[in-house]
Amino acid sequence: MPAYRLLRHALLPLLLAFGQALPAHAAEGSAVLERIRGEGEFRLGYRSASIPFSYVADGEVIGYSNELALQVVEAVRRHLQLPDLPLRLVPITPHNRMAMVSSGRVDLECGSTTHNREREAQVGFSNTIFIAGTRLMVRADSGIRDFSDLVGRRIVTTAGTTSETVLRRAFNSGELASATIVSARDHAESFMVLAAGRADAFMMDDALLHGELAKRGEGGRWIVTGTPRSYEAYACMLDRSDPTFKKVVDEALAGLMRSGEAARIYARWFTQPIPPLGHNLNLPMSSAMQTLYATPNDTPFD
Question: Which of 49, 114, 131, 298 has the greatest CB tally within 10 Å of its CB?
């Protein structure tokens, strides 16, 4: 028998034994799952100040989206049969979040990221986890109640967000041609620009605006107002070329929604006092969210 055949016969039992020793899901064609297994950790991207979705309070990452993400991590641990798989939390920003996902530096990002068709060219998205409307925060005595009152005004929004895109489209179309658009680094800076009088209105997703008020306990001075300019479907970002990993993520989220656990998580972050100051956002679940939980999906609004 030729030498190469002898070698193959000698190695075949070892190869079969090695294959049987691997967990059932070890070689199912998911680059992300294989990377997680190979590197021995799950890397979750988080936002530091996106209240109440993903933020840091008392040195701990918390929030509605973060709680859902932790359940996804557990689902991945079960899928890979690695119950002790370490979790590494990686800070991200609105500016670098898509690059962090598309480059593989994080395996999943769950915060307050809008899923839209334009972004699908760069990253993939999970099932929707939240539906928001873009509105305005203004001083209670400003007289501004809707977008039609913004003619000649200064409007601040956070750079790199869909709110900035919507505002600039309105400006370029001539609808808000006399307005001035100010871009801030993050939501906290946007609020500070508004509070300092350098802007008349802060445009952002309504839940995030309420989150900024909860962070500061200044609800009496400010109101969130205006007919929603657009609706946003928040989702977790992931590798767009890995349907197997997406399936694991989507099934975990759908299970939370259908079981009622997602509704309990929602109540904890939107209808009860939350850190750091113990203020309540007082945002009961909308009919759109109820429908989402009953029929989980990954469909964006645009």
Answer: 114
Amino acid 27: pLDDT: 36
Segment 228-246, tens digit of pLDDT: 999 999 999 999 999 999 9
Which residues does 126 contact at the CB level (< 8 Å), separation at least 6? 72, 108, 110, 235, 236, 237, 238, 246, 249, 250, 253, 298
Going by C-alpha positions, the residue among 93, 217, 211 that lies closest to residue 160 is 93
Answer yes or no: do 140 and 215 share one domain: yes
Percent of the chain with pLDDT over 90: 82
pTM of the predicted structure, to 2 decimals = 0.83
* 137 neighbors 192 (Cβ within 8 angstroms): no
Question: Residue 87: pLDDT above 90?
Answer: yes
Same-domain check for residues 122 and 245: yes
Run of H or E including 192: helix 187-195
- Based on the domain organization, do 53 and 111 belong to the same domain? yes
Same domain, 223 and 141: yes
Residue-range definition of the domain harbouring residue 191:
133-230
- The 10s digit of each residue's pLDDT in 251-273 is 999 999 999 999 999 999 999 99
Same domain, 53 and 121: yes
Least confidently predicted of 8-22, 72-86, 185-199, 266-280: 8-22
CA distance 197 to 209: 17
Residues 250, 79 contacting (CB under 8 angstroms): no
Question: Do 90 and 169 sit in the same domain of this protein?
Answer: no
Instruction: Examine the domain organization and report whether 224 and 267 are in the same domain.
Output: no
Identify whether residues 219 and 263 lie together within a single domain. no
CATH of the domain at 214: 3.40.190.10
Number of domains, the chain: 2
Assign residue 74 a region: left if phi > 0, alpha if psi is -120 to 50, beta otherwise?
alpha
Neighbours of 103 (CB within 10 A): 10
How confident is the model over 150-180, as pLDDT tens digits? 999 999 999 999 999 999 999 999 998 899 9
